Amino acid sequence: MTFYAFRSLYPFLLGAGLLACRTTVPRATQPVTTSPAPPAAPEETVVFQNGEGGYLCYRIPAIVKAPTGELLAFAEGRVTDCGDFGDVDLVLRASSDNGKTWGPVRRAADYNAAQVGNPAPVYDLTDPRFPNGRLFLLYNTGTVSEGEVRAGKAIREVWYITSTDHGNTWSAPVNITTQVNRPNKPAVNPQYGFAEDWRSYANTPGHALQLSLGAHKGRLFVAANHSAGPPQPQARDYRAHGFYSDDHGRTWHLSPTIPYPGGNESTAAETSSGGVLMNIRNQSGDAKNRLLTSSPDVAQFWEPVRVAQDLPDPVCQGSMVNYQAATGQRYLLFSNANSQAKREKLTVRVSQDDGQSWPISKEIYAGSAAYSDLVIQQNQQIGVLYEKDNYNKIVYTQFSYNWLAH
After folding, report:
1. HEC-encoded secondary structure of 259-313
2. CB 108 within 8 A of CB 116
3. Whole-angstrom Cα distance, residue 76 to residue 61?
4. In the predicted structure, residue 4 carries a pLDDT above the cut 70
5. What H or E segment, with its residue span, contains residue 21?
6. How far is Cα 199 from Cα 162, in angstroms, rounded to an integer?
7. Which of 24, 50, 188, 262 is the most buried (most CB within 10 A)?
8. What are phi and psi of 5, to 5 degrees?
9. Distances in Å between the alpha carbon of 390 and those of 43, 50, 59?
10. Residue 134 near residue 166, CB atoms below 8 Å
11. How many whole angstroms separate alpha carbon 121 and alpha carbon 205?
12. Which pairs with CB-CB distance under 8 Å and at least 24 residues apart come from 111-115?
């Protein structure tokens, strides 16, 4: 066959399947590369909406995780308005699906037509009498406004209630004012005759702490603050302090007062050595930054206070919580309004060195945001319960550590 004849048969050979045979010859394949899926964006749900559940306004969020994994979200339910003083109850909602849905609003504590506030919940997980854990809810009561208390016209008392069924029922209130406060008001109670003359008083707004490491494992610790004596300019009469129990709430003891003038609402977390780091609101406003101090034993002393230049703050509350990665490494997380101008830009930060530095941060919400509280869910997601949109509501946002750190 001539070359030209072969060319004339080429279309026929194609139709007969010559090229189809070629497709059966193995080819060298290249590995398929794909980019890892980005971390899922935060999910948000409304927990307390103003005007719902019988309360005109909700403020001052606090949240804890039960040993069962259930989330318990607390707030002040303000009956008539959003003011800090008046007919105020402590209320609770629970979630059994990691914050996706929430049960009805339930009342945890009230003080008739007066104020009960500053919820500080914490689980005692080491009391052998309660192998499933016992929930403490510490709080303060008041009969007049903070300004009047600070002026010496009344006092704030300190109480706790407990629950062994995760907030469904509560014990009778226990008054621990003489153990953890120093008021000079014997006309109110003959036992309230302390020369220190503490006036304004507040537990940490947000969860309290149980130590899990070191010589004081099992200690319950509550960050707090007070004012002492007559009001002073630039809130210099305010000081932060804490109180603790080593016997499952039978007795309570004061930590030393932190001497920095203007130290107000404080929050605490455990350090990697079993000590305590305190993160304090600077009420004086001489620096629009958080104040930090730590102690290996809160019964003894606090290290000198430092102004945290990497933690700007508009004079507002903040929250800290411990987070342990799958690798076993321990971190501290901190949430606050990341602004020196106003309450906005809710941000969560990460410290890998017990609060010496906070190099990782992620903004949760750019708009109006104020008080917040952090929790670690059963599935290791991070949750933050916070006041949003000019105190219009309290929402719960959850996200992964991978999202936070990348």
Report:
1. CCCCEEEEEEEECCCCCEEEEEEECCCCCCEEEEEEECCCCCCCCCCEEEEEEEC
2. no
3. 7
4. no
5. helix 18-22
6. 26
7. 262
8. -65, -40
9. 20, 11, 11
10. no
11. 9
12. 111/141, 113/87, 114/87, 114/88, 114/141, 114/142, 114/143, 115/85, 115/86, 115/87, 115/88, 115/141, 115/142, 115/143
Q: Which residue(s) pair with 109 in the sheet?
A: 90
d(CA 115, CA 142): 5
How many whole angstroms separate alpha carbon 290 and alpha carbon 309? 8
Beta bridge mates, 388:
369, 393
Q: In angstroms, rounded to a whole number, what is the distance separating the alpha carbons of residues 119 and 109?
A: 10
Residue with tokens 């059966």: 24
Closest CA to 356 of 297, 300, 401, 309: 309
Q: What is the pLDDT of residue 326?
A: 87
The separation between CA 2 and the C-alpha centre of its own chain, rounded to angstroms, equals 89
- Which tokens belong to 388? 């949003």
Tens of pLDDT, residue by residue over 60-116, are 999 999 999 999 999 999 999 999 999 999 999 999 999 999 999 999 999 999 999
Residue 76, judged by CB atoms within 10 A of its CB (0-12, 13-18, 19+), counts as: buried
Q: Do residues 128 and 98 lie in contact, with contact meaning Cβ atoms separated by under 8 Å?
A: no
The CA-atom distances, in angstroms, between 299 and each of 220, 221, 246, 253, 393 are 12, 10, 11, 8, 38
Q: Are 318 and 326 in contact (CB under 8 A)?
A: no
**Bridge partners, residue 91, by sequence:** 75, 107
Mean pLDDT of all residues in 193-221: 97
Apex CA 349: angle with CA 405 and CA 244, to 5°? 130
Q: Which two tokens stand for residue 156?
A: 């704030």
Answer whether 343's CB lies under 8 Å from 315's CB. no
Residue 132 DSSP class: T
Q: Which of 37-51, 84-98, 270-284 has the lowest mean pLDDT?
A: 37-51
**Residues 242-268: b if buried by 16+ CB within 10 A, e if exposed:** bbbbeebbeebebbebbebebbbbbbb
